[in-house]
């Protein structure tokens, strides 16, 4: 992580405060919204990364999480603008993790 921060730190510095590199599994993401990522956020982002950027409640249920924990995590990610809702199939998308 320190290598990643060193690599991108100078480039991100020109953008001002509020930008930092965070890890989601093996993927590095640039967080551009103020806020802290909890371990639950990071785990949810890792689950989404393994699904091409798509996050579903059933994916998080396989982690053994109760409904309240899932809702709290997803709601927080949505509040931070890191997750978009797909109302067609009741899923969520992490734009930073879209895979082509």
Describe this structure in words.
There is one protein chain. 18% of the residues are buried. The chain is α+β, with helices and mostly antiparallel strands and 100 residues long. A hairpin with a 2-residue loop joins strand 1 and strand 2. The protein has helices at 2-13, 39-50, 57-61, 67-79, and strands at 20-24, 27-31, 54-55, 84-86, 91-93. The strands form two sheets. It has a three-stranded antiparallel sheet. The chain has a two-stranded antiparallel ribbon with strand order 1-2. It is globular and about 40 Å long. The mean pLDDT is 80. It has four helices and five strands, in the order αββαβααββ. It is 42% helix and 18% strand.
Notable characteristics:
5 strands, 3-stranded antiparallel β-sheet, alpha+beta, 100 residues, 18% strand, single chain, two-stranded antiparallel sheet
Computed structural class:
alpha+beta
Q: How large a portion of the residues is in β-strands, by DSSP E?
A: 15-25%
- The best one-word shape is globular
Portion of residues within helices: 40-55%
Gyration radius (Cα, Å) is 14 Å
Order of helices and strands: HEEHEHHEE
Spatial separation of the terminal alpha carbons: 25 Å
Main beta sheet strand tally, sense and closure: 3 strands, antiparallel
The number of E-state strands comes to 5
Number of helices: 4
Low-confidence stretches: none
Mean pLDDT: 80
Q: Could you give the order of strands across the largest sheet? A: 3-5-4
């Amino acid at each position: 992580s320190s290598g990643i921060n060193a690599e991108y730190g100078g480039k991100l510095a020109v953008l001002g405060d509020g930008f930092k590199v965070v890890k989601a599994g093996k993927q590095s993401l640039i967080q551009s919204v103020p806020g802290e990522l909890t371990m639950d956020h990071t785990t949810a982002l890792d689950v989404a990364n393994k699904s091409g950027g798509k996050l579903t409640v059933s994916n998080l249920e396989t982690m053994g999480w109760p409904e309240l924990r899932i809702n709290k995590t997803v709601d927080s990610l949505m509040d931070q603008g890191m997750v978009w809702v797909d109302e067609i199939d009741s899923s969520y998308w992490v734009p930073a993790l879209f895979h082509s």
